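note to self: the first set is below, dont mix up w the second
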Amino acid sequence: MQCTLSGTLYIYQGEEIAMANLPKDWPIEEYKDVMSQQFWFEELELRKKKQGTDKPDMSDVWDGLQRKARDHARNPAPHWDDSENAGFSLKPNSEKPWMRVHDDYKEWNVAKQQEDPHSVLSFWKAMLAFRKKHLSCTYGIYTPYSENDERVFAYTKEYKNERLVVVMNFTKEDVKYNLPEDAGSLDQVTDQIGNIPDGKVTINGRVFELRPYEAVSLIYSD
């Protein structure tokens, strides 16, 4: 979706390897953001007085921090490899990053994803190349085709004689989506890309048969 819509494409640090938020079992002390710390401890004191206990229920506050705290985007990124501190120290134990490195860095890092053709990093590279190759991604006229569908996001983009069709299943279920006739013919596909490694795109007539979370982009000329 990001790579086929107009405007400036912005990839935040760590997004290219799909870095995760900080683990839920990390204590508040691991959060370095002053606003997060202040919010947590101010709310803690208020609830202590209101609930008359030293250990009030803070689960809702913690859930909010797990979703919105700025430190999720400040964790050392990206993880370069599985060495000490995810490769941020030139010499083992010589320097520590400003924050604790995410616990999953040994399995989730750039070095491993560079060697895997089906990794998130490899897919980002392929999508960026697709976007640069096909100007309809950037400059195409956008026409939505799924405004009332809560499962599928579909649209076309037209630029000069090139047409881009994008169909994405945002559910964990198999979905069939019938592309409207005014989206144009699909019998002259010249290029395509999808997010499932087998590269298969199932289209019966104008019906896309999408697997869970499958996304497909097709290029064809009128």
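second set (the one i keep forgetting abt)
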Amino acid sequence: MSATTIAEAFIPVEEAYKCAVMENTWGHLAPRRNAQHKGLMLFARSEYGDLVILNSAYDGLEDSPWLFQAMMDFVGDNTPEPGIYKFTGIFRNYKFVGDVAKVEVV
């Protein structure tokens, strides 16, 4: 049996353990299902492809690993070219619904 095969055998166990630790540590901060939070997010994509969340504010929503991951996924999907963007809308069930507009910088 090769080393990669043994390592691969433990991947599901390790992943389940990581998820359990995250839930036990940060679970109280996870966004509640069906709760709707109005807010905005300012984000950017650099000319080298880096994604950065510059600012975000949502009514009644605390920071958490789940929110951060949802924001990074959204930013990655909504920045087709380098620039600064602003999202205004709602966050509900790990999805953002609203308008994204490119901010012109002079």
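remember for set 2: The chain has two domains: 1-29, 31-103.
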